[in-house]
Amino acid sequence: MGAHQHGSVKLPGGPTDAKERAVDEEALGALVGAALKDSECVAEHLDEVAANLACLVRLVTFSRHAALRVYHGELPGFMTDDDDNFGPACPELKRLVRAVTAGEPLFEVCEQLTSAERRAAARDALELLIGHLTLTASEDLDDVETLAELCCTIGAGMIGWSSQAAPMAERELSETWQKYAFGREAGLQGTGADAVALFLGAVLHHQARTDEVSVETIRDLAFTRALPVLRDPERTEEILRVFVAPPQTDAITAPIKRLARRDHAFLTDLCLYARRTLALHVENCPYGLREASHQCTVEHRLDAISGGSQTPVSTPTPGVPEEGRRVALPRIGYREDRPAEGAPKDYPDDHLWQINTDRILLTRWDAGIARWNENISEDSSISGTPPYDNETGLEQFACPACKNQESFLVEGRWGDPITLHCSCGVTIMSPVDAGSDDLGHHLLQRLILCAADPAYAARRLGPPLAELQERRRTGRTHRSYLGPDADDVELAEAIDLEQDDLAQALSTVLRPRLPERHGGNALTLLLLEITYALSSPQVRDSDDGRRLAEATHAFLADLKEESDRWAPSRQPVPARLQQWRDEGGPQLWQDAWERTVDVVGNCFEQCQVRSGRLSDGCAGLTLALYLLAREGDIGVEQISRDEVLALMEPDSANASADVGAETTRPWSARLQALGHDLDAHDDPVARMWRHLRTEVRVDSYRDERRPALLVGLDAVLGPHSFYNIRF
Questions:
Q1: Hey, CA dihedral for 408, 412, 415, 417, is it positive or negative?
Q2: 694: closest CA among 678, 675, 710, 683?
Q3: Which residues pair with residue 421 across a beta bridge?
Q4: Most buried of the four, 329, 424, 572, 653, by CB within 10 Å?
Q5: Chain centre distance of CA 9
């Protein structure tokens, strides 16, 4: 090689390929150098490169990249189309270029070619490379953004905005991506958002080429025209396969294309998430709020795509200033129930309502708080009660454009989508083609009913209150029921039902945080709405308002009664044990209690009595220590855990189906032998025995019942006990 009178050109890529196969960079550089100098030794170098498959792959790949540079991100037909004979590319080179574009493993494709075919491919790849390098050097091509790059950028922007607007959809996409990426040899790189952005870029690029949209006119691209294509996975696979992705996406492109080609489920999921993304943009496009089947363009969503804004505002159509500035009504996370009544009877069906309202209250589920709670649940470093926050809250509606929360003009007919006019000059609308269960329809109907009859604010809250009360009563019949929820108990204990003004009594306890978000459980939020409804004299002094107040009072009184009934179950376990100790008894009985408290330590410090298993288990342990110490005439500290467990075994000589009775019968006999009258009311040991021999449910899943003694000891000392106390 030293005799060759030409330099060597080093091509990028390194000494090995992605599979760690060696690439003869010296031979490849010498070939390009000889070709640039038009040396006679080109043929000799060409034979050497064609024989080295890794070198051939590098040459074809670099020749393809050079063509993309010249043709602004597109491949000329003569490099891919067998019927296009315009350029010098032979069929073998076209096959290899198509393989690169489709994400096929090029090395394996080269292996399928004969030596002559590989040399022909190398020859034409070299000729095209030299021509394109010469052209780029002489014409000084600008590094302008290509159509493919623009489409991928738009796709990424769309995904970025939708991730903010619909966090749960983004989470679902991440989980789906992990399903395909984890444990596979597909070599997937990046994230699910990267994959959908590339996929969207391919589909948008195809639509742009179909509609003859260029880089200069990309803002006019109506991406809604791509939605039908995304319902046809086979068609999208073909589009993705031939899409010439920007070189900077090479790391993720080939694995995605390969997996989409062989895994129909993966391709279907790509279509699903891409379709959802486009549909979300269409639904939130302020330019199509009053257009059925709106053709949404990139221009319409440019602010959202480029800046991640969730509140893009439209500008009036030139020549139609009365349109004003518009913004879509936020819907994700909000809930508005179907109205409890039909249209007001005293008004014509086509009556145009114009309602001035000082505020609009809505219930919203917060995905950010939900994610926070999930992170807390997975954080093992948190001890004690995790600081969970309420995911659902009541809040005042805010203008998406200026965040104003007061003084809106509501406009529309019954059955129409809502129109809200904000003082900032922006009109908030729900889409004209939204379904009848859309937030905007239900919200407008609620506001119309309240405007026609303010007492509707009370009537609409009656059914939810009755439904909640029925759920609470039904819950009391379940096996797992252990009293009212802690939040409900806190409310029941705090609300003064003797106060004449129920709204004031509720407000004192609830301490409404509006206009800031007020989070809470179902009861808290319902009581909060009742508070606001009854705070209006028009509602409070109406018959419906009085009925709502009476029903609320009855509900809270019942809750207070239920709370009082279950108050003992909320007692801390250490307090219950101390209460039993304070009942007195012989010294050995007190020693047994002291030993039990020492053994369990602070295991139950944060526990409530609830079902009674833990407190009964501690009482059972105390009774066992006392019984064995009395019988053996020894100290309670000398008794082992195994000796206590032996007392839980049924009498083998009298084994029967009633295991509980056979187990507790010997306890009764031994206590009586120690001189205890088991029916005595002044004997703390006898009183405890009567409590422990009472049958309780073994668990909340079955009807099986056993003495509290056995259930409690099993919860504290049993082999499956979470605490498994040892001594």
A1: negative
A2: 710
A3: 409, 427
A4: 329
A5: 52
Which pair of structure tokens corresponds to residue 79?
């490099």
Dihedral sign, Cα of residue 278, residue 283, residue 288, residue 292 = positive
In a domain, 398, yes or no: no
Q: pLDDT tens digits, residue range 68-115?
A: 888 888 898 999 998 888 778 899 999 999 999 998 989 999 999 999
Q: In this structure, what are the phi and psi dihedrals at residue 222, rounded to the nearest 5 degrees?
A: -85, 95
Q: Determine contact, residues 426/289, Cβ cutoff 8 Å.
A: no
Tell me whether strands 392-396 and 518-519 are parallel, antiparallel or unpaired: antiparallel
- Please tell me whether residues 560 and 575 are part of one structural domain: no
**In which band, very low, low, confident or very high, does the pLDDT at 124 lie, cut at 50, 70 and 90?**
very high
Q: Is residue 275 part of a domain?
A: yes
Asked whether residue 493 is assigned to any structural domain, the reply reads yes
Question: Residue 537, exposed/middle/buried by CB under 10 A (0-12, 13-18, 19+)?
Answer: exposed
Do 61 and 169 fall into the same domain?
Answer: no
Rounded distance, CA 243 to CA 245, Å? 6
For residue 294, give the amino acid letter: H
> For the purposes of burial, counting CB atoms within 10 Å of the CB of 425, is it exposed (0-12), middle (13-18) or buried (19 or more)?
exposed
**Pick from 582, 671, 691, 661: which is nearest to 626 by CA?**
671
Question: Contact at 8 Å (CB) between 616 and 569?
Answer: no
567, 582, 597 - which closes a domain: 567
User: 496: which strand partners?
Assistant: none
DSSP 3-state of 410? strand
| Last-in-domain residue among 114, 139, 164 | 139
Domain range spanning residue 438?
A: 318-378+403-449
Cβ 325 vs Cβ 314: under 8 Å: yes
> Residues 45-56, buried b or exposed e (16+ Cβ, 10 A)?
bbebbbebbbbb
Residues 210 and 224 in one domain: yes
231 domain residue, yes or no:
yes
Distances in Å between the Cα of 478 and the Cα atoms of 469, 702, 703 are: 15, 11, 11
Instruction: Establish how many alpha carbons lie within 13 A of residue 113's alpha carbon, considering only the half-sphere containing its beta carbon.
Output: 27
Distance between CA atoms of residues 36 and 213, nearest Å: 37
The tokens of 2 are what? 């030293």
Tokens at 231, concatenated: 């319902």
3-state secondary structure of 222: strand
Per-residue tokens: 72: 């602004």
Looking at the fold, whether 268 and 330 belong to one and the same domain comes out as: no
Note the pLDDT of residue 1: 44
φ and ψ at residue 412, rounded to 5 degrees: 150, 165
Distance of CA 151 to the CA centre of its chain: 28
Q: How buried is 634 (Cβ within 10 angstroms: 0-12 exposed, 13-18 middle, 19+ buried)?
A: exposed
DSSP for 549-568? HHHHHHHHHHHHHHHHHTGG
Provide the phi-psi class of 612: left if phi over 0, else alpha when psi is between -120 and 50, else beta: left
Least confident range from 336-340, 404-408, 434-438, 512-516: namely 434-438
* 57 phi, psi to nearest 5 deg: -60, -45
CA separation, residue 632 to residues 615, 635, 651, 677 (Å):
26, 9, 20, 20
Mean pLDDT computed over 435-458: 94
Q: Report pLDDT digits (tens) over 488-526.
A: 999 999 999 999 999 999 999 999 999 999 999 999 999
Q: Please state the domain count of the chain.
A: 5
Distance of alpha carbon 698 from alpha carbon 715, whole angstroms: 10
**Best CA proximity match to 365, nearest among 385, 336, 338, 386:** 336
